[in-house]
Amino acid sequence: DALGALVYKVEGVEFNIGSVISALITFLITAFVLFLIVKAANKMKNRGKKEEAAEEEAVPTSEDYLKEIRDLLAAQTPPAETVKTDSTFTEK
């Protein structure tokens, strides 16, 4: 191990710098792989939410149905005119 040979001496105490660097590299690689796994899991989770939201938007609400009925009734021919005679209505 080339990194294991790196040693730093301070007042007779040896610090194995190679082991620290090796552990740091291992930690960074592990953290990066874990980050990619979590990112992929979140992407899959959000994809399901987007599909559900699209399905919910496609389903008409009761207000939409009522507006459609109103528009259809307005498009029909107008009802026969009525004339008021005395206190009753008669069709013309």
TrEMBL record:
The lineage of its organism: Bacteria, Bacillati, Bacillota, Bacilli, Lactobacillales. This is MscL family protein. InterPro entries: MSC/AndL, MscL_channel. It comes from Enterococcus faecalis (Streptococcus faecalis). Keywords: Membrane, Transmembrane, Transmembrane helix. The chain crosses the membrane at residues 20-41. It comes from the Bacteria. The keyword Transmembrane applies.
